[in-house]
Structure formats: C-alpha cells, structure tokens
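Table S2 (text version). Query chain:
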Amino acid sequence: MTFNSNLEKNIPKLFFYSLSQRRHFITLLSIYFMTLPNSTANQIGLYSAIGLLVSFFLELPSGYISDNFGHKKTLILSKMFMTLSMISFIIGDSFWWFALGSAMLSTSFAFNSGTFSAFLHDTLEGMGKEKNFSKIRGKIGANVSLVSMFLIITLPFLTQIDILLPFYINLIFDIVGLFIVFNLKNPKKEITINKNNRRKIISILSEAKNLGVLPFSIFSATIIALTYTSSIYKEVYLVDLGFPIIFIGTVMGLSRFVWFLMGHNLEFLKKMFSMKNLLIFEIIFFTFSFMLISYLKNPYFVGFIFIIMIGYMWGRTPIFEEFTLNNYTKDKNYKATILSVNGQLSFMIKFVFTIIVGFIMGISYPAGFLFIGLLMFLILTISFLNIDFKNKIY
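Corresponding structure-token output:
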C-alpha cells in the first residue's frame, strides 16, 4: 500500500474525529446541572466563565505547542481531554465537577483549534493536493454539520427516557473518536520540531505581523466573536418575539444545514468573489443582517436571518483558513500557531464587548443587536482598509 493511499484514509478519519468533537448535548448541559442538589443559576455562568478563561490563556500557546509537539499527538491530547470532560459531566454531582469538565472541554477545543486544519493541510501536502484545502476542509465541516443537525434536534427527545442518555451517546462518540485519532497516518512533513530548529513564538508572530496577518485576522475574528456574542441572546430574543419554545432548537439545527450547503459550494463562492470582494460583501452582509434583526418584529424572519448568518459564517471559514495558510505562514512548520491567532483575537474581542453588549441587551434586545451591527461595521471597515491584497494567493 502506497504512502499516498494511507494519507487518503486520513480524510474520512478526520470527518469522524471532527464529528466526535462536536458537543451535541451542550444546550442540555445547564438544564441537567440545575437538576443537581444545591445548584444555582449563577453557578452556570461561573463554570462557563472558568472554561472561557482557560480557552483565553491556552488558545495561542496551544497552537505553538502543537507545532512543536506534533499535530497528531496534539489531536490525541485534545480528544483525551474531551473524553475526560464528558466523563466529568456524567459522574459530576456538584459545581466543582462541572467546573473541571468545563476547563477540560475548553482545553480540548484550544488544542484542536488550528491543529485540525494544520494536520489536514499537511496531509494534503503529502498527497500533492494542498490547493484543494478549502474544498476538502469545507466538505468535512459540511458533512459533520449535517449529522450534527439531526443530533441537535433529536437528542433532547431522549431526555424523556433519561436526562443523561444524550451525554452517554456523546461519550460513545468520544471513545470512537479517540480510537480513530490514534489511527491517523502521520504525513511525511509531520515531524516534531527539535531543539535545534525550534523558534520562539514572538519570532513567529512578528514574522506573520510583517506579512500583514493582523488586519485580516482582526476582520475574521471580529465576525466570529460578535456573532458568538449575539448568539448568547438569540434564543431568549426569539422567544420574546413569540417564537414557539418547542421549536427553538431548529434555529441551531437549520443553521447547520446552511453550513452543509456552504461547505459543498466553496469553489463556487471563490469563483464569484475575489478575497477583496468577498470581504466587502461580508461587511455589508453581517452589518445589514444585525440591523434587520434589531428592526424586524416577526420571530420567523428574525430566526431565518440567524440561520443564514450563522450557517454562512461557519460554512465559509475554510476559505479564510486557506488564505491565512497561503499568505501568512512563511515558516510552514508553524501553521497551527498562525491559525490560532484568530482564536486568540476572537476571545479578546468577546472579553471586551460581551459585558457591554450584555448591559445594552438588559435595556433593550433590539438596541443590543443594533449596537453589534454598528460595532461590526466599524471594526470590519477599519480592518479591511488596512489589508494589503497585492500578490496574495486566494
């Protein structure tokens, strides 16, 4: 069996691994926590904050660790933390178990962020197909999202049998995912960096900054961060507008279907827009979407906008990753480090504006969404004007 044929097997394995990393039970976690003795609603925010804090501190260092330790080893580590977090939630009977589970969950996400795409890119390079990165990455994410859509919608019904049943199902996914990641084939270029050629993280980031990564990363991170911030309030706002609570899970589920459609049509999107024109479109699209959300009073129209906006954002992400890898990674040994820059900036933007947005949402939901739209327009426009598009590879 040839080396290339072994690498080709990584593609379906990475699909199943990625599927196992999704937390299909996450909307049920706080509900389950509140069934435990002596639990309070403010503790949900506290264990969530612990997870966010861990993510903030690990996001960028985890990419650097991955590049030096090895991408496959880091994916294994990520999967182990994910499995342990799942066990912690299942056996947990107190706040501290959930705090531990939240910390390990965030650690897993941090080690997976950047590393997954870096490993896939190395795999495709080994096959001589790195130009197909966004196409293949998009299809993996799209197919995972289609399966996720059904799981997100159906798993809550299993709580009628036992509230822990969705958690046990996710644990089975984790165990299978752990077996799969151990069986990934290392690309030829997947060699752990030794002490002699190891670079300092400041040197890598400085090089990327000189290549112009910062404004592009701020653009990408702003969309992710502010859309995430808005998503915290989307369910309560939709219910406030009169959206039937029994169908509230369909908004997240159908956004995954849009993600699925986007992921299978990224080549069409790249043919329609140059990167410069795509960013102009996104400034208009995201700003206008939030303004419509703040203005419209029909819950179904508002829900539809959320579905399209969130599904589009995640579906087109591989294009942004490919652009970053093609233009801002001069040293190809440090792909995960540079891809983690977006995640770190996203956490910083969330940290700065989540409290402000929360204060405005407490006064008026429409005003809060309008503020997000105007803020996004301002940051995206300034970032866009500072991006150098000359001699850039799409």
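Notes on Table S2: The chain has a mean pLDDT of 86. The two ends are 34 Å apart (CA to CA).
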